[in-house]
Amino acid sequence: MAFHRFKALEAVLTRVPVEVNLPSNKVSEFFGENVFGIDAMREYLSDEGFNSVMAAMEKGTQIDRKMADQVAASMKAWANAKGATHYTHWFQPLTGTTAEKHDAFFEPTEGGRAIERFGGGQLVQQEPDASSFPNGGIRNTFEARGYTAWDPTSPAFVIGKTLCIPTIFVSYTGEALDFKTPLLKALSAIDKAAVDVCQYFDKNVTKVNATLGWEQEYFLVDDALFNARPDLSMTGRALFGHIPAKGQQLDDHYFGSIPDRATWFMRDFEIESLKLGIPIKTRHNEVAPNQFECAPVFEECNLAVDHNQLLMDVMEKVARRHNFRVLLHEKPYAGVNGSGKHNNWSLGTNTGKNLLSPGKTPKTNLQFLTFFINTVKAVHDNADLLRACIATANNDHRLGANEAPPAIMSVFLGTQLSNVLDELESKVKSGKMSPDEKTALKLGVGKIPDILLDNTDRNRTSPFAFTGNKFEFRAVGSSQNCAGPMTVLNAIMADQLVKFKKDVDALIANNVDKDEAIFQVLRQCIVDSKKIRFEGNGYGEDWVKEAAKRGLSNIKTTPLALEAFVSKKTMDLFERNGIMSEREQHARYDIYLETYTKKIQIESRVMADLALNHIIPTAIKYQSLLIENVRGLKEIMSAADFKKSSQIQMEMIVEISEHINTIKTKVDEMTEARKKANAILEVKKQALDYCDKVKSYFDVIRYHVDKLEILVDDESWPLPKYRELLFTK
Ligand code: ADP
Ligand code: MG
Asked: Which of 40, 263, 338, 585 is most exposed by smallest CB count within 10 Å?
């Protein structure tokens, strides 16, 4: 018998919380201690070296080779002092996780000796033999290998005994093979476009950083229960499981007190994260039982993305010390809330201003309106691309499931700002807006954020919501690399700002006053993007109908959603803004499709395995018990008594047979469908086949397995049940 759930449950019930000590009550005393940040650089680098790294971080200037040698030597000295013996280029391949290949600092020399070596060459560039990372055909046709190159805008750090150097991962022909490369390009595009637009309002703005504050949701499950569920351990989600009598109806987990063991785990991974310079700040329970969330203070987007990748890694590692597994999957349990990763996004200037935060003066408020309205327009024009960048096999289960944003893209602005936009639209149109009215409108905007910042006035059902001083992209999945969505969001915003500036400049060239020109173009943006605005309940059925009427897309599955990545419109947009070439974009599209196919393929195999090797044998054993019982009754009873007494058992025997038959038949059909799909060579066709002809068996197989779960004797059911996964503490 497989690892029976009773053994697992016993293990859980005897667990003792693993307590951890805070290194100090003052976080400032250990925050960032494992990061080669400003303080460490000042201590270890010469002034020249320090200035050159700072210039690379802030202005993107190149670090020359001699300087790189110096930085490498200092970095190594610092890392050695922290106990590091190895170094690695840390990068983000398109698998969605992070990758490392560790090299020791030493190099063998003649005579069986070794010297310590880590020079500029090793710092700046490395060739991981990473040919098994997905590349969408790029490296097959051109060069056999890719290389990683140092990204000085994100500081190096030490984990365990390894110095990790954040890098990009590109092919020898220069094509991006990772998430970071296009993100950096998108960030540079938004910087330039936003600075240009800021010039209308403030000449002192010379740099604009996109900012990101993510909120990470996750589930915890005990190690032993996790191991007793092959589906959880192989696919990250429970493929079977009957909904328990008590789920999340009572909402008693949300913001409730955090269970002891979980608290120690959180404390532990927070300490590790803080040491790595991740400004983690918030923790609380989420809606579903055993579901939690953590969030940091927002940071510059590239750094925030790295920090989220790092955090997911740290969480998984630290969880093991506490006999937990972290489930980052978007929908580990059907029928229970899924997990997202809200991406709070804004734009900050070198002058310390948040461009999406209305200010107190009319001038800053026109600037706010400009960035605000342009965001709405960018989302409107590129809704399908935004949908594509959150499309994964996992997220398909979550989007549109009662508690998650729908697959329909819309923007929530709040009543006040909606009114401002309506007013701007009608007044500018009739040409009736006097200078006083304009000033009043701009001033009125200044009062809004207080209302929106108040948590209670928020719409939580929108996939993309304004929350007072930032937009919150809520449809992002919990296991996703934020770089994907952030690349798209910053790229479409950069593109929109460029267009906006062009239109305004054209009017100015025609002797229209600057303010008036801005108002006119903004008005046009408002008119053009109206259908994307939605203030109502995004979870309701009514919205689905209303959205269809408005002509908004509602793309439910990943293979179809991904198409927006390779539309002519997207290709042009990425090309125009220097984000990605057509070839890179196509390669990426293929990789996403392949990943989708593989995920469904694995789920389908695990499902078949479990059904045939765990579920059916268990059901047959129990059915045999019933048959034995009936036989016994027949032996000892009169015919009339027997008929009465065996009726229920007979019905159960038949019912079990029916479920077993259906399960077996459907599993066989699914396996056949898989074989057919596997034979398809074209990636898109294959993904569609997996979506429409393989995945379509999941629900029916699950339905019958879950029926068996409630029919069969609890004693013999091998897999931990939902109530155990969700409520055992
Ligand atoms: P909640 O959404 O739960 O009310 P907050 O509004 O405080 O919480 O913030 C949620 C997340 O948004 C946090 O990670 C926070 O750092 C981030 N955030 C706040 N301001 C900005 C900003 N200007 N840019 C990006 N993220 C931000
Ligand atoms: Mg939030």
From this structure: 263
The Cα 292–Cα 427 span in angstroms is 47
pLDDT value of position 141:
45
Across 361-366, average pLDDT:
76
- Say if residue 144's pLDDT is above 50: no
Q: Tell me the C-alpha distance between 503 and 512, whole Å.
A: 12
297 lines ligand 1 (CB under 6 A): yes
Q: Give the position, in ligand 1's atom list, of the atom nearest the Cα of 212.
A: 25
Res. 313 pLDDT band, cuts 50 70 90: very high
Q: Which of 341, 345, 299 has its CA nearest to residue 493?
A: 345
Between the CA of 295 and the centroid of ligand 2 the distance, in Å, is 9
Backbone phi and psi for residue 336, each to the nearest 5 degrees, phi listed first: -125, 155
The confidence score (pLDDT) of residue 673 equals 98
User: In this structure, are 124 and 221 located in the same domain?
Assistant: no
Token output for 418: 């909606």
* pLDDT over threshold 50, residue 142: no
Distance CA 265, CA 223 (A): 13
Residue 143's pLDDT is what? 47
Give the residue from 140, 175, 210 where a domain finishes. 175
Q: Does any ligand 1 atom lie closer than 6 A to the CB of residue 346?
A: yes
Reported as half-sphere exposure (CB side, CA atoms, 13 A), residue 432 has a value of 6
- Best CA proximity match to 403, nearest among 538, 279, 291, 599: 538
Q: Whose CA is nearest to atom 26 of ligand 1?
A: 213
The full 3-state SS of 70-117, as one line of letters, equals HHHHHHHHHHHHCCCCEEEEEECECCCCCECCEEECEEEEHHHEEEEC
Same domain (yes/no): 660, 572 = no
User: What residue's CA is closest to ligand 1, atom 11?
Assistant: 213
**pLDDT of amino acid 67:** 87
In whole angstroms, give the CA distance from residue 87 to residue 78. Answer: 12
Give how far the C-alpha of residue 162 lies from the chain's centroid of Cα atoms, to the nearest Å: 26
Is residue 216 in contact with ligand 1, taking CB distance under 6 Å? no
Q: What are phi and psi of 379, to 5 degrees?
A: -65, -40
Cα Rg of the chain, angstroms: 29
pLDDT digits (tens, 9 = 90+) for 252-305: 555 566 678 899 999 999 999 999 999 999 888 777 888 999 999 999 999 999
In whole angstroms, what separates CA 381 from the centre of its chain?
Answer: 23
For residue 91, being part of any structural domain is answered with yes
Three-state SS for 719?
A: coil
Q: Round to whole Å and give the CA distance between 542 and 357.
A: 32
Give yes or no for residue 354 CB within 6 A of ligand 1.
yes
Phi, psi of 531 (to 5 degrees): -70, -15
Range of the domain at 92: 31-175
Instruction: State the pairing for strand pair 208-222/341-349.
Output: antiparallel
Nearest to residue 153, comparing CAs of 298, 53, 69? Answer: 53
pLDDT score for 360: 74
* Distance from residue 253's CA to the centre of ligand 1 (Å): 23
Residues 645 and 688 in one domain: yes
Which tokens belong to 617? 């044998």
194 and 148 in a common domain: no
